[in-house]
Inverse folding.
């Protein structure tokens, strides 16, 4: 079986979760000519590596927020943190292998210094149940993003890596959804509150971390160039063009709607409608 076939077999986020390590990614077989001159892909993967590898901070904040719930804290610290940081390390190694001229360390330092201003527990939802809903939105975004990247990548090693990450993010979603249900039994958030959280977090697709990560990738890759807000707008447009043929709208809508507990009948109506609307508007 070729590397391309392996990447497209069952490493697509759809099957049972299984562990992997950097040893499972054959960086030595990376086909550099396929990606070397692809600036959009470079910026996308480099920015993603910055966000993923900062998981130590995300974990610390969530552990503080969920203090006293031993099961949640243990999984965040020993499961989620480890896998998210592995994503960052794996993506960093891909960037440094595919684009060795890029000074990843220097660019990341700039990102981290600026991003730390926006990383605070004070920005979390008012209750633990609603914060778990917000986490479900984030994991929906990452799971579908890496699934899209796996499907769209012209390079087999990146397809394989992105598929592994997507599979992890689906598993993370399942954990956050289960913790939402546990907290919801205690806190009894209304469906309207859950919906408001879903909508608010979904509308934050231009979250500070993505914009800041792109900014510092661009600045490091083009020393002396002035960074303009229009650069990020153009980048997002390019990502939309890449994503539109590959993005799993139905997967995203099903994951987003699950915390609303709509029931089978309502879901059969709402999911197709939501998928059509997402396809029309999400990348408009």
């Amino acid at each position: 079986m070729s590397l391309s076939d392996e990447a497209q077999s069952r490493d697509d986020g759809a099957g049972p979760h299984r562990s992997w390590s950097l040893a499972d990614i054959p960086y030595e077989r990376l086909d550099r000519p396929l990606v070397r001159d692809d600036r959009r892909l470079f910026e996308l993967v480099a920015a993603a590596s910055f966000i993923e590898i900062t998981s130590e901070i995300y974990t610390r904040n969530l552990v503080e927020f969920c203090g006293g719930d031993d099961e949640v804290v243990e999984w965040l610290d020993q499961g989620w943190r480890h896998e998210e940081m592995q994503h960052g390390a794996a993506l960093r190694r891909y960037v440094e292998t595919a684009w060795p001229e890029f000074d990843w360390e220097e660019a990341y330092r700039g990102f981290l210094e600026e991003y730390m201003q926006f990383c605070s527990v004070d920005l979390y939802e008012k209750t633990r149940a609603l914060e778990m809903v917000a986490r479900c939105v984030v994991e929906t975004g990452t799971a579908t993003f890496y699934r899209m990247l796996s499907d769209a990548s012209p390079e087999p090693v990146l397809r394989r890596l992105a598929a592994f990450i997507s599979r992890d993010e689906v598993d993370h979603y399942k954990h956050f959804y289960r913790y939402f249900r546990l907290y919801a039994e205690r806190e009894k958030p209304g469906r309207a509150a859950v919906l408001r959280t879903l909508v608010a977090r979904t509308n934050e697709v231009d979250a500070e971390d993505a914009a800041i990560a792109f900014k510092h990738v661009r600045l490091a890759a083009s020393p002396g160039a002035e960074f303009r807000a229009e650069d990020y707008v153009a980048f997002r447009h390019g990502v939309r063009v890449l994503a539109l043929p590959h993005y799993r709208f139905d997967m995203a809508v099903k994951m987003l709607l699950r915390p609303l507990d709509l029931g089978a009948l309502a879901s059969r109506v709402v999911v197709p409608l939501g998928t059509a609307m997402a396809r029309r508007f999400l990348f408009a």
Summary: Confidence is low (pLDDT under 50) at residues 1-15.
